[in-house]
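Closing statement on the NAX sub-project.
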Amino acid sequence: MSEPIRVVVTGAAGQIAYSLLYMIAKGDVFGPNQPLILHLLDIPPMMGVLEGVVMELADCALPLLRGVVPTADPAEAFKGVVAAFLVGAMPRKQGMERKDLLSANVKIFKVQGEALDKHADKNVKVLVVGNPANTNALICSRFAPSIPRENFTAMTRLDQNRAQAQIAARVNVPVANVNNIVIWGNHSSTQFPDGSHGQVKMDSGKTVSVREAVGDDAWLRSIFVETVQKRGAAVINARKMSSAMSAAKAAGDHMKDWFHGTPAGQFVSMGVVSDGSYGTPKDVVFSFPVVIKNKKWEIVKNLQIDDFGRKMLDITGKELEEERGEALAII
Ligand code: NAX
């Protein structure tokens, strides 16, 4: 068995972390032969709660878990880590404007970027989950100049998983039979869930395009898009709390693919620093379809974008440019 790797989860006393820590510690993300030491970062008032999480991790008696480092100090949290799940963020409180939320989070992700820069492994893979995830990831990377920009990503995998589940339900196949659904742009209500490049393996064993399997382009462009865009709100309405189990699963999926690669012929969606592909704005963290090999992602090129898609990409790109402008004005 190899040496333990160090992995940090921020917001470790929160609800997403509660599911995510167990998944990581039992080997679902880094593999069944990879021991690890978990670093758990939260804020000082949450240290008591975090102690309870540490007790539960011990009580899980997980063979791969070789150590746990609970802390409120970003320097200690990021020391030597090769993977970082940045889940912790300031939640939106009643009466809070979007701008106030952005302001609080930009400051958090500046501090964390600086701490990663100083203390993390230079190859650290960073996944930002805390909202506004795309812009937080951008800010974080700007304050960690010694770490390659491509090592900073934002999570849109939950949106992708939601989209796959909607298609699977619509055509009545297991969710694993649906592939290559793309989430473009921001993890917000302007995101563009795009089924037009997807494939479905039908019960007959034949693989067909999502468009053919669904047989209803109007549904793919309206109800499907809106359902995925508003799924987070629907969960909050029903559960009175935001998505946590599914968000943790998606964070695990994202990091697992980053470490182990994507299967041949399949792509996944990740928020990455845009190089302007598909006419998107450069230097925002934009969700693209990517393939991953040897721990490096590459944007899938040459997908056909029709007029409807173009309009959707432009809307979400514009929102990301606005967020970047607001964030940079705060710093
Ligand atoms: P919780 O409020 O349950 O937990 C957040 C935790 O972060 C708290 O324990 C809090 O003390 C901690 N925290 C706050 N500031 C911190 C800091 N500076 N350093 C370390 N820890 C800090 O929220 P939870 O439901 O776990 O959600 C976490 C974040 O994920 C939120 O920002 C949420 O909006 C975002 N989400 C993002 C998703 C995505 O797809 N990208 C989907 C799920 C989720 O809504």
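The chain has a mean pLDDT of 97. With this model delivered, the sub-project is considered complete and its resources will be redirected to Aim 3.
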